[in-house]
Every structure is written in C-alpha cells, then in structure tokens.
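Reopening: structure tokens for the zinc ion complex, inputs below.
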Amino acid sequence: MVDETALFPMVAGMSNWSRRFGFLGLVAAAWLAGVPSTAAADGGTRAVRVEAAACPEHAAWAAAAETLANEWYPRLGNLLASDIAVELPRVRIRIDPAYRGVAAASGAEIRIAADWVKEHPEDARGVVIHELVHVVQAYPENREGWITEGIADYLRCAVFEGRPLREFPRPSGESPYRDGYKPAAGFLFWLESTRAPGTVRRLNAALRNGTYGTNTFREIAGAESTDLWRAYCEALERPQQSLPPDPRRFFHDSQGGGEFAILSEGLWVERQQGREVWRFREVARSGESIELLDEARPMRLRLTAGEVQWFRDGLWTPLYSGRWTAAPGRNPGSEP
Ligand SMILES: [Zn+2]
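Re-run output (same inputs, fresh job):
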C-alpha cells in the first residue's frame, strides 16, 4: 500500500507486482530479497527493524520507533486475528531520504520519507502503525481499497492514538468513505462501537480469505454501506441529549401508557397502565443513558433522554419514545 499523503485521504492503487503475484507474493519476495540476512545481523531477535542508515540524524527517532513497532506489531496481529492463521513476517522499515511520498508498505518492507519524519515526527509514529497494519492484513488481493485503508487508519487513529469518534472527518457526499483513510476509519469505528460490533474483524477475515463479495458488507454490517454512512452522519450530528439531573421516572404512551421508575438504588420497575410488569437491575449509567438488565429473560434496556431502547441482535433499537418527568400527584414520602 502506498500512502502518499497520510494526512489527506486518497486511495492507493495496486502495483502491477501485487496484481500479478498478490500480497503474499510480495511478502515472499521481500523475504527472499534479504530481510532474513539483515534481521540475522543482530541475532534476529526483533520482529521489526527500523533502519536510519541513510539518514543518521534520525537514528534516535528510529530507535524509539523500533521499540514502538515491536510493541504494537503483535497487538495489531491479535486485533486482526482470523481463522486463517497469518504468520507475521519480519518487517524492515527504512527511513528513506530519497522517498517523496509519506510512506509505503510493499510486503514486509516499509519505506518512510525522511522529510516526513523530520517535519512530522509524531505523525510519523502513527504512519508506522498504519503501515504495520498493511503487513498484518496480508490480503491476497485488494479489491476493496477503502476497507483496507479504513482498517489501517481505524487501528492507527482510534486504537493506537485513542482519538474520539467525533474527531474523524465526515466529508459531504453520497459515499465519501469509499476514499478510505480517516473517513472510512470513523465509519468503521462507529459500526464497531454501536451498530455492528465485530465489523472490522469480519471484514478483515473476508478480505484475507478471499470470500469478500457483492453482499459481504451488507451481511456483516446489517445494511447497505451508503445507508449506514447516512445513519452514522445523522447520529454524530444529532446533539447528544443529556438525562435530567435526577432521572427517576420515564413515561411513555405506548401500550396504553407505561413508565419506568426507580424503586431503590439500583432497582427499577416497569409499569404498564399502572400495574407492575417487570423489574430491572441498573447495570450502567452515564450522563446520556441508564442501562437496565432483567437477567431472567434476559432483557437489556437503555433509558435515554427521550427513548427506551432495547438491545436486540447486537443493536440498540428504539422501543418506546417518551419523557422524563416527576409523577403527577407523586407522594415524595412513599418512594425513595
Ligand atoms: Zn495505507
């Protein structure tokens, strides 16, 4: 993968080489081209070597990057584990004064532009992670470049750098995620954390074992990518509504009217038409929601500012809409 400008989204094209021989061919070619011999020079103890031979002024950066890369390479391998076992090859990262792009991975050989290290040393650490993801991915062919680059930036920006979802760019247009990189990374991050957990792992497995087809994305994420992108943008644009200061009763008008009310700390009751029907244990609470669990059924609900949501098939689905309020005629002495 050639990432000419890591800060500005673009989809990298495949080289003729990788088209003819596939990714694994490139890995093999890089290996045969001398990686073992250089790795063997220091006893071959480190899986990733970062070389700054051509630019000694970056020796300290290279040493720090090598430590970082050796910590993260096996982690990235685990994050992208699939039923097809991938042996992580030894990786050689060269800081290259002649390279005019930002960075590129070709099999297990990674080049990073010396100018980029000089001008953006912190970003260059993220670039190392991004390129290592490409080595780990080991996709035999690259038909879905946006997913390949999206996963690389998801692991870089969301997992390695720990950026919050709101920081990921959401360009306008029908399907800007198809340009890969950070817009696709944010999209995958949102799918992973809300609508369809497991999406990244499953996309990775499908691309790695060559089963990715026309319907794969929909099967994994539960809907067409364009529809999900729209839902993602809407969800992020909607202001996050906070719960009221002391949320104790939530009313709704469905099924003849009902309510959720706190009985005692950690214990909630659901009433329909004034009659108790279920009890729930409070298992989590934030400024935006309260999560309730009835272990016996089991049934997991979430009370938000204006909705009761039901956790079903891996998604939070609206169940009732309603409002928080003090009960009319509530007797403060009769309830905690
Ligand atoms: Zn890339």
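The radius of gyration is 25 Å. Residues 249-324 form one domain. Marking as resolved unless the reporter disagrees.
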